[in-house]
Amino acid sequence: MKPEPTPERVGIGLAAIVGAVFLGSVADASAKWFGTQGYAPTQVVFMRYLFGLIPMTVFLCHSGLGALYTRRPGLHMFRALLGFGSIYFFFWGVTLMPLAEAMAISFTAPLFTTALSRPILGEHVGIRRWSAVAVGFVGALVVIRPGTEAFRPEAALVIASAFIYAVSMTMTRRMSTTETNVAMFTYTTIGAGLISTPFLLLSWHTPSLTHLALFSGFGVIEGCASFLLIIAYRNVAAAVAAPFDYTSLVWGAIFGWVLWGENPDSTVWIGAGIIALAGIYIARRESALKARGRDHERHQ
To answer: Which residues have a Cβ under 8 Å from the Cβ of 213 and sit 6 or more positions away?
Structure first.
């Protein structure tokens, strides 16, 4: 059962989502930087999960081995594969295009999640949410600008990442009734790390001690961001947290400008705004429908 949204819990949840978004943005910028240093996306993914074992171990020690009990080992393996695919395509795409633009395109993930909830989860999606999904994808087209000189083919990599991530999130919702957060986090970290290992034979670049230290910080930051997201969504509704998710574009623009002199044009901001508004509406609509369903159950 989700705890009651007391002011204290809401404060904890909002602090957690702000921290998660900031750390996630730092990690995304770090992945782009590693790419500019000659590291292949597969090696960056491997390092992310290798050093992600550090926070994973901390969380596991806190929860105990009992939290790893699972009834769905096959789904955990599939979810690990999705985790690898999503982060691989994003790290590849972000190396080839401006950071803020890649982040704006990644905002389509919640739109894909809503669209997939019908075929995968069997959930009813009404005309309002389908309309919001359509509007959100129009915003994505504004950012991508197909058919113009500003079009970047590498945007397809980020779209693929967003789609795979949406499938993963849909699977998470399906598994959450029987699996603990620690189990999903642990099996994904170990599984995705193992999946990335064979690719190192094709793309290994021996890191210096300095880069190895940076990789360790990168993995810890990514792991902490994931854990903070768990805290956030335990304490506040998705409709409350959603607006804070989209502030990652601001951090992406700042990091892109400071580190690489990137300056997203007005079209990127307009398209990102359309996507964000659509995503926020979907989150609020789903929250309202869930609240209505709980009220209906109480009065039966």
So the answer is: none
The candidate with the shortest Cα–Cα distance to 223, out of 31, 50, 18, is 50
Place of tokens 């915003």: 139
Q: Cα(95)–Cα(102) distance, rounded to whole angstroms?
A: 9
Condensed to tens digits (0 to 9), the pLDDT of residues 248-290 reads: 999 999 999 999 999 989 999 999 999 999 999 988 888 787 7
User: Which has the closest alpha carbon to 112: 275, 294, 298?
Assistant: 275
Residue type at position 183: A
Q: How far apart are CA 189 and CA 84, in angstroms?
A: 9
Question: Residue 197 carries which DSSP code?
Answer: G
List Cα–Cα distances, 16 to 70, 162, 190, 227, 300, in angstroms. 27, 22, 24, 9, 36
Q: Is 266 helix (H, G, I), strand (E, B) or coil?
A: helix
Residue 177 DSSP label: T
Residues lower than pLDDT 50 in the chain: 1-2
Q: Record the tokens describing residue 32, joined without a space.
A: 């782009």
Q: Report the C-alpha gap between 34 and 28 in whole angstroms.
A: 10
How high is the pLDDT of residue 1?
47
* Predicted local confidence at residue 297, as pLDDT: 56
pTM over 0.85: yes
And the tokens for 129?
């949410």
- How many angstroms separate the CA atoms of 4 and 294, rounded? 13
Q: Specify whether the CB–CB gap between 159 and 93 falls below 8 A.
A: no
Alpha carbon distance 4, 124 (integer Å): 26
